[in-house]
Design brief:
- The complex is a heterodimer.
- Chain A has eight helices and no strands.
- By secondary structure, chain A is mainly α.
- The longest helix of chain A has about 40 residues.
- The model of chain A has no long low-confidence stretch (mean pLDDT about 90).
- By secondary structure, chain B is an all-alpha fold.
- Chain B has a single domain, classed as MetI-like fold (Orthogonal Bundle).
- The longest helix of chain B has about 35 residues.
- The two termini of chain B are about 40 Å apart.
- Classes of the chains: A mainly alpha, B mainly alpha.
- At the A-B interface, helix 2, helix 3, helix 4, helix 6 and helix 7 of A face helix 2, helix 3, helix 6, helix 7 and helix 8 of B.
Chain lengths: ~220, ~240
Amino acid sequence: MLWDWNYAVDILPKLLRGLLVTVEATLLGSALAMVLGLVFDLVRRSGVPVLSLLMRAFIEFVRSTPLLVQLFFLFFVLPDFGITLGAFTTGVIGLGVHYGTYTAEVYRAGIDAIPRGQWEACTALNLPRSRVWIGVVLPQAIPRVLPALGNYVISMFKETPLLLGISVIELVGAARDAGSDTFRLVEPLTMAGLLFLLVSYPSSVLLRKVERRVGYAT
Amino acid sequence: MFDNVSFFVTTLLQGLLPTVIATVGGIVLATLLSFGAGLALLSSSRLVRGLSRTYVEFFRGTSELVQLFWIFFVLPVLVGFQLVPLFAGIVVLGLNHGAYGAEIVRGAVQSVPRAQYEGCVALNLTPAQRMRRVILPQAVVEMLPPFNNLFIQLLKNSALLSFISVADISYLGTERLNVAFGDQSLLIYSLMLVFYLVLSLLITLLMRTLERIGSARLGRGPSPMSQVPTTVDGGAR
C-alpha cells in the first residue's frame, strides 16, 4: 500500500503548522527585502564615491553566492561577534538581505524608468532632494514595480525551506519530521509539495493578472 | 586565526568537483529541457502545449527542496531503487531550472519579429528549416543573458544537495570544517562564499563570450543587454 489516507490526515495539522511558519518567514522576509532593496539602491545611486562602489560590490557578491551558505554564515558567524539571534530571526534576516539585493535591481529599473522631464521639473521648481524622492519619484516608481516585487515574494516562499538548514521547522522540515517518526515519507513529502503548489500557483496567476492591469511586464 | 587556511582550502577543493559536476550536469539537462519544453509551449497541438505547460507550472510552483527530497526519498518507495545522491541532485536541478528556462526559450522565440516568419513562408522553407536556420539563431542570442542568470541560480541551488549529503562545498564546509573548527566560522564561511563567487564569475564570463560569438554571427554588435547585466528580472526566477 503506497498511500495511507489515515496517516495523511493525521499529519496534516503538523504540516499546516509548518506551512504557517513558512508563510510567516516569507512575509517578514519580503517586508525586509522590500525596504532593504530600496535602501541598497538609494545608497548605490547616492554618488558617495566609496560607499556606492561598496554597495555595488556587496549586491553582486550576495547575488552570486548561495542563500544556504549565507544562512549558515549568519547562523554560525554572528554569535562569534556576540549577536545571538534565534534561528527563525536569522532566517528572516538572511532571506531579507538576499532578496533585498534582487529587489534593489527592481527598484533600479523602476526609478530609471521615470522620465527625465520629471527630474528636470523638480530642478526647475527648486524642490529639496527629500521632496523630489518622496513626493515625485518614488510615488511613480513603486506602483510600477509592485508586480515584479510580488514575483520575488513567491520565489522567496519557495526558498524558505532552506531555513531547514539552520533548524527552523517549516513546511518541509515538518514533513521530514513527520516522516522520520514513522519511516513513511511518501505522504508527508507529497503533501508538502502539493501545499506549495496550492499556495504559489494561485498567487502567481493572480499576480499575472495584476501585472497585465498595471501594464508592466517583467 | 589564519593557521588553518590551507587546510580549509584543500578540504573545500575536494568539494569543488561534486559542485561542478552537479552544476554542469544540471546546466546540460536544464538546457535540453528548456528547449524541449519551450518549443513545445509554442506547439500548435493543444495536447503538447498542455503537457509542457503542466511540467513548467508544476516545477515552478513547488519548492526545489521538496522536489529533491521527493526524488530522493519518495521515488525509491514507488519504483524500488534509489538514485545516487549526486545523480538525484543533477536530475532535480535540471528539471527545476529547465522549467524556468522553458519560459526563456518561449519568450525569446516569440520576440523574433513576425516578418522573419513571413519571410520564411514566402521563401517556402519547411517549418524545420525555418526554426533551425532563421528563428533559433536569432532567438538564442536573446536567450543568453537570461540563461546566464538561470545558470548562476542553478549553481547557487546546487548547495541544496548538501541536504542529501552530496559532499559538495557547502556540505564539507559545514559538516566537516565548521563542526571541527567552530570558532573559525567567519573564515570558513567566507572562503565558501568566495568559492561560489568565483564559480559564478566563471559562468558569467563564459556566457558573455558565447553572447559575443552569437551576436557576431548575426552580424550585430554586442547586444545592449550585455552592458546592463540585469533588468527587472534580477538574478532570481
